[in-house]
Each structure stands twice: as structure tokens, then as C-alpha cells.
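Support request, please re-run this one:
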Amino acid sequence: MLAEKTMNENLIRDRLVEHGQSLFSAPPEFVRFTQDDAADRLLNDLTDHPHAFVLASVMDRQIKAERAWLIPYRFMEKLGSFSMGTLARQSERDIQRLMSDPEPLHRFVETMSGFFFSAVRRIADQYESDASCIWQDRPSSATVVYRFLEFDGIGPKIATMDANILVREFKIEFADHYSIDISADVHVRRVFGRLGLTPPNATVDQLIFRARGLHPEFPGLMDFPTWEIGRKWCRPKKTECSGCYMKDLCPSANDGTANKPMHASPNGAPDG
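Re-run finished. Output below.
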């Protein structure tokens, strides 16, 4: 029984890794962060505006990601520029005004204004106003994740997500990928649970270490495939198993429990 379960888990892992590897090996394409073309062009400009990517990451908490990643472009509209020189000349009070007037750009204006100001200062002071120094010269994945974690407001989930986006989408070279973990959002947690890789109520730590055990050389390679499955087919209340490429291996699809409600983990957000 255990051997059969392990074999099926290995087949699931291999298929997720295969899909992740196809994305990792694909040529770079324009990355969609928001639904605004101009905002996405700014975020894709790692040559002249690498700080836009970093500052958007700092804003990505407790609001929808698409809204958070729009904030750098909204600043550029108000300032007429998004150069580091322009940003570094803004006081903390200036940043708060830009964040709040005429409409709030974030749910928590005061806190996020402070994080934004702090991030600008860190890029200016620690990276000589060039945020791409965070990932230049093939650093280790642990180094890149740690550098993101040094920014106020960025936790492990966003730090590893950022590192994953840099290597997967922008094809930035790292010395290794060992420390790029899976990002335990609700879609990834739900799919891992329904695939039988973790219990339905697994904690964030359980999910991260499960992914490390399944694919230690690059745990985050399984991140986008499982997130995509969760967004496209493996929805919280209504699944579309017939369209999912994991359906033949998924125990929940095959035993009819795929639409069983998921519950909050002891150490994670409720599923949604």
C-alpha cells in the first residue's frame, strides 16, 4: 500500500516538474503582472527600472496582487518619472501623500508608505540605486531570497516568489535553485492537498518541506504548475477535472472527493 502510494506521488511529482521545466526552458516572454499594458512594461523593464519590480513586490500584501503591482506605475503617473533619482528625492511624507492622494493606492496606506520609503532608501544606499544588483553575477538562490527578505514588508512567500519569477520568467541566472521554495498560496495548498501530496489542512511549513522533499534541487519548479491548476481547473467549490492534465493521477478526481470543501490549516489562510 505504501509502495503504491509512493509510486503515484512520484508520478505526480514528475509530471508537475515536467510542466515546470517546460516553462523554465521556454524563451523569455512579456510578463503579465497587471491588466495594464503600460504598468506591465514598467515592471518588465529590468534594465532601466529594476526597482519597479522590487517595489511592487514590497506592496504585494493584503490586497489583490494585480492592484499591488500597479502601484509603481501609479507613482510614475503622479511624478512624471520613476527613476531612482526622482524616488530618492521624495521624503517619507511625500511618499505617504503619493500613496493616499487623491485615492488610496493600498488598503494600508500608512504602513505601506513606510515600507515603500524604506525600500527606496535600501536600494539607494545598499545597491547604489541599482536594484538589479540583488540578482547580478549568478548569486546563489539563498543569497537572492535573503536580499529580498531584508526589505521591510517582504516575507518568505514573496521573497521566494520573486526569485522564482526572476529565474522562470526573466531567465536570470542563479548559481543554484535549492532555496527557491514553493509559494504556499491558497491555490498551491489546495492542489497539493487534492493531489494527495499533503493533508488537506497542511500548514505552510508542511507544504514547503514536502516540496523540498519531492524535488530538492528546485522545489519552486512545481509552484507555477500547481498554481495554474488551482486557477484554471481545481477551483475551491467547483472543479473541472476533465480539463486538467493531472486527472488520471489525481486521487481526488478519481474517488469523487475533488469538490469536498477545503478547510483552513492551523498555520495558514483559509482556502478560497
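The radius of gyration is 20 Å. Confidence is low (pLDDT under 50) at residues 264-272.
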